[in-house]
Amino acid sequence: MWRVATVIALHDETATARTIRLEVPDWPGHVAGQHVDVRVTAPDGYSAVRSYSIASASNSERRIAITVERLPSGEVSPYLTQQLAVGDRLELRGPIGGWFVWRSEQTEPIQLIAGGSGIVPLMAMIRSRTAAGGTAPFRLLYSIREPGAVFYRDELQVLSEHDQSVSLTYAYTRATPINWPRPPGRIDAATIANATWPPNLSPTCYVCGPTSFVESAAGFLIASGNSPDRIRTERFGPTGDRR
Amino acid sequence: MALISRGFSGRRSAADAKLPPGQYLTTDFPVLSAGPTPHIPLNDWEFTINEGTQVLRRWDWKSFRELPTENITADLHCVTRWSKLDTHWEGVSLDTLLADIETDAEYALARSYGDYTSNLPLDDLLNKQAWIAFRFDDDDLAPEHGGPARLLVPHLYLWKSAKWVRGITLMQEDQPGFWENLGYHNYGDPWREQRYSGDE
Prior knowledge:
The complex is a heterodimer of chains A (about 240) and B (about 200).
Chain A: E1 3-12, E2 17-23, E3 35-41, E4 47-53, E5 63-69, H1 77-83, E6 89-96, E7 110-115, H2 119-131, E8 138-144, H3 153-162, E9 166-172, H4 189-195, E10 204-210, H5 211-223, E11 231-236
Parallel strand pairs in A: 7-8, 7-10, 8-9, 10-11
Antiparallel strand pairs in A: 1-2, 1-6, 2-5, 3-4, 3-6
Chain B: E1 24-25, E2 46-51, E3 54-60, H1 61-65, E4 70-77, E5 82-93, H2 94-97, E6 107-112, E7 117-121, E8 131-136, E9 139-140, E10 150-152, E11 165-171
Parallel strand pairs in B: 1-5, 2-11
Antiparallel strand pairs in B: 2-3, 4-5, 5-8, 6-7, 6-11, 8-9, 8-10
């Protein structure tokens, strides 16, 4: 069943990523981590559908947000990030997915690991925790190319300063802020050891990002003592993706 | 009636004609898995066919690789909407693995290392429709794509082609697998666009 959504606000997260806020009058609600299918249709009837993670917290206002990263050779993302305007309508299907989700009843420590735009469904988990007044301890390890590529920067900063039980670690892969203690590079065993929950706390781990990133991050989590059945993953992009 | 998206033109290609509805073509090979990739040493690998608690057939890697193999050319269709055409595999046909088994079971559950499962009618595993594949494009199947061996049932959405497969359980009654329990369609025919539960 396709629902009609109206664009109510647009916000550029970075030079290539845009958050699209949508009003969906018949939205049934969602769980953090779920995604929607978005359908766009050309005047001649040709249509294309892509899946995007929901970035916003579960709420009762029938509003959701998605954040779309523009892929240079993409078919749909350039339209969504460059042409779509406030007041335009989109067709949505969803919410979809029942595995890569965090529910506010979960009280165990949560380890979030994002690679690039893989932050989006994890941000929905952080926002849902805040919206529910949750106390589950969260850690986020956010691997990102450079400071300018960070999504939701100010919101994450405020949250980690005001809420002792949400901690935030950036791992830059290409360029760091000035005087940053860790040289740029991909996450490795030491990063995982320093920035994630000790495995004996049995955290539930959510890892989202490009395939190669998820493969390596999940591998380090297991090598450091986390049980594979505590690790949930969501991958995107081609096998050999490097970013 | 679809809503027209002002300013959207989209891309069409000749290959679209070969694609099921709602799919787009990719030349990459994306990876979708619910958890970490298991790494299974060939010495520990085994494949069994079960019915109830009874093990009807069992192969280790050596005896499995002594079975006759087939070269397969198949189009792959993932429920996340990418399709990849004319992929080349080598595998053992389920017709070979299920030969001489007397059963009145109508359903099958593919079981994987890492506890993934996926269900399908037994008929969909027979008659040159399904293989246990262990080579892709002339290379051993990579772990992230399901190696050492995965089920390949290309006429259904790719989640049915269970990676890291370790066996098939024959069942009298249908039993939903991992994604089938989490909102995805029980059968998953890409040409009828059976993506999610509730799709016709």
